[in-house]
Amino acid sequence: MVEKIERREAPTTDQHRHARTNLPGNFRAALKGEDGTNYEVGVQDISAPGAGLLVDGVFENASFVELHMEGLGRINAHVARDFVGGIGVEFDLSGRHKKEMEAELKAFRKTVASGNF
Length: 117
Description:
Number of strands: 8
Oligomer: single chain
Shape: globular
Distance between the termini: 13 Å
Number of domains: 1
CATH topology: Thrombin, subunit H
Largest sheet: 6 strands, antiparallel, barrel
CATH architecture: Beta Barrel
Order of helices and strands: EEEEEEEEH
Structural class: alpha+beta
Strand content: 35-45%
Number of helices: 1
């Protein structure tokens, strides 16, 4: 059964500057660490500037990673924070590329919602 994606609008107490899209618990991606090690990760949520990833590995803040997501392709990023069970990554995108990412995310949300991933 495909779970619907939930779009959360950030309340005033939320630290996020951009609306996040929560993904179904079974949504997986590949993450390549700075040392070249590959990890299979869960994608908790995603927005144009970054994503919350559920990982088993330990990552240093500010370390560079490469995220591979079906429907979005390869995205260079760096670890912005860690939390219990995961990390938050910030995509390394210029202003123009962030706008392109927002457009891609709209299409991606529809794909995930329809179960075609």
